[in-house]
Amino acid sequence: MKTVKVILTIIVILTLAFFATGIIVKETTYQATVSIKKPIEVVFAEFNSPENTKNWIPEIKKFEVVNENYGKTGSVYDIVVENQDQEIKMTQKVMAYVPNEKVTLFFDAENMLKKDDYTFSENYGITTINLNSACNSKSYIMSCMLPFFADKLEAQSQLYLDNFKVYVEGK
Fold it and tell me: What are the protein's UniProt keywords (predicted)?
């Protein structure tokens, strides 16, 4: 009987810790970076060309323009991504667009809200892209889980930047 009480106590403590995560951690953040041996003008143009996105994010099955503004800021796109044989629909909105310097994208993917802030810099013909990303959720349960997946989200973003580097340098 004492063993059962100990096991139940451990389960209760772990459950409370899990649900406390959603209260304590409001936002999950991470960074990624890549350096590309191409001029900043080429890198920025390729990065912000919607038709090229499928070349470095292979999970994208559909990329559709909803509203594309002249200055890009405020442009909206619908994206369908396949993840583990499941289609996920998301909306991407361009929050900031400064040619050859910065682009900020906001994603609404069902329960996950994500802001990707990309900054571009060039030094001696090598362009560096720095990503600062922040995720949170509309649902409480998902916000409890996000901090435990930060490493996976960071690794996925780094993989996409590395794929982009291979794509651009191969052109």
Answer: Transferase
- The Cα 19–Cα 11 span in angstroms is 12
Integer angstrom CA distances of residue 128 from 98, 121, 142, 147, 156: 15, 5, 32, 27, 18
Amino acid code (one letter) for 2: K
Looking at the predicted structure, is the pLDDT value of residue 22 above 80?
Answer: no
CATH class of 27-169: alpha beta
Domain boundaries, the chain: 27-169
Helical (H) or strand (E) element with 65: strand 60-67
Q: What is the pTM of this model?
A: 0.86
Q: Give burial (CB, 10 Å; 0-12/13-18/19+) of 85.
A: exposed
Q: Are 31 and 151 in contact, with CB atoms under 8 Å apart?
A: no
Residue scoring higher pLDDT (34 or 28): 34
Q: Sort 44 into a burial class: Cβ within 10 Å, 0-12 / 13-18 / 19+.
A: buried
